[in-house]
Amino acid sequence: MKDFDLTYRQFGTAILIEWPQIVNEAVLQDILAFEKMILESDLPDMVETVPAFASLTVFFDHLKEAGKVISALKEIYPQRINRVMAKNTWNIPVCYGQGFGEDIHLVASRNGISHQQVIDGHCQVVYKVHFIGFLPGFLYLGGLPVHLHCPRKQTPGLVTKKGSVGIGGAQTGIYPIDSPGGWNIIGNTPISLFNAQQDPPCFVKPGDQVRFHPITPAEHSQISSDIKSGQYNIAAE
Amino acid sequence: MNMKEIEVLVPGIYSSIQDMGRPGYRAFGIPVSGAMDQVSPALGNSMLGNNVNAATLEMTFSGAKLLFHASASLAICGADMNPTVNNQPIGMNKVENVNAGDILAFGRAKMGCRTYVCIKNGFNVKKQYRSSSTYFPAGLGLPLLKKGMKLYFDDASHGQVPSFSRIKPPSFLFKSTKIEVTPGPEYHLLGKELLSCNFQISADSNRMGYRLAGPGNHAHSESILTSTVMPGTIQLPPAGNPVVLMRDCQTTGGYPRVLQVTEMGINILAQKRPGDEISFVMV
User: Fold this and answer.
1) Residues on chain B touching A206 (C-beta within 8 angstroms)
2) Is the ipTM of this complex over 0.90?
């Protein structure tokens, strides 16, 4: 594996490890490989790790000697292996527009394309899951086509509904819970990305892939009721 | 053990059950949460012989009115909200015993912001992800207190705890206005400038974060690739008004992280209220 030029520094009770500040597949895979080695190591007082686009934060219960911990982490990095990690591609059903995506026309007009082209463009790509953050179960997805980019709203809305699929700048994402939000909402999925009754609470993991497919309002309501009665299983390719 | 009941007559403001938080799930985007001021509940729990992580009741600005349906041993720590039992004043920072039928009531905080009711054996709340802390946006823990709600605690089989002498809480928790910080990852972006300013805590402050208002123009146009933030992180959004992230903060963010408040600094901030003035000092 190619070694990246990493920086290590103390950040609160954590060590922040940073990669070159770019968003791509090679950085993502390197972060996940390093994270796996750290989690399998016996670093004392380690609590958890948090990956992001180009960083990995390693949290400790106590961090008295940051220098020693950084040295230990630097020794672990070259030991990581380019394992083929088990990854899933999840098919997420989305009802676009039709009362579920109030801003789809805004995204269309902003980019000079039709409503249907927004849907086609959003569904044509396989998105990479870089990490989960911002809200419980919120996936940071890479790969939104440029012709769908659309700036965030100037004034965030008070409540964006759970399951809303939105576009904010160069990113697309799914609101896992009701939340204030400034993204342009183009549709809604009946799938729960965060389930507080399960551990782990999210079925999607960093490194997985996500693909969207369009459904009708009737299918949305059918899937919703199937989920409630425990009869729906999300498909992974 | 036998479950005993408390009835909420008046909920107070933003009253919630909190322990020392929910670490270990940040990679799923779940905030750490936990008591805003962790010194006060730790004091109360230790007086009662509880585990430091025992679930306590956190109240903000103005307290609750609770009817006990069983006897209990309590320790009330943090901001002084004039606690009374059946309208008779009781002490703070000491063990107090109450009986079935007693009404524990609080007024407004005289100094400081948050008060903790610690109870022998802790409040009995089903743990989610190893914590009893309320994080209501994701439905974790109990909802915020509301009128008529029931709280439960385990009866101590050996009866009530004898009252010991009062513990003196650390006065700096309420008096200090200097908040200790270390450099944040983006300290080079205006971090140093913030050290020479006095800030006022704005009204728009809660368990997620405190917005600060102050002199000087710290506006900028820098952003970072979304990366980790944590309680105590001072973010500087482009408009230039710093935000100190608190216990319920999100796990990642895209604003420059210019300073990091120490754990004790977070506890001190937890007892500040809108309008209070603070400044930052490098450790």
Assistant:
1) 27
2) yes
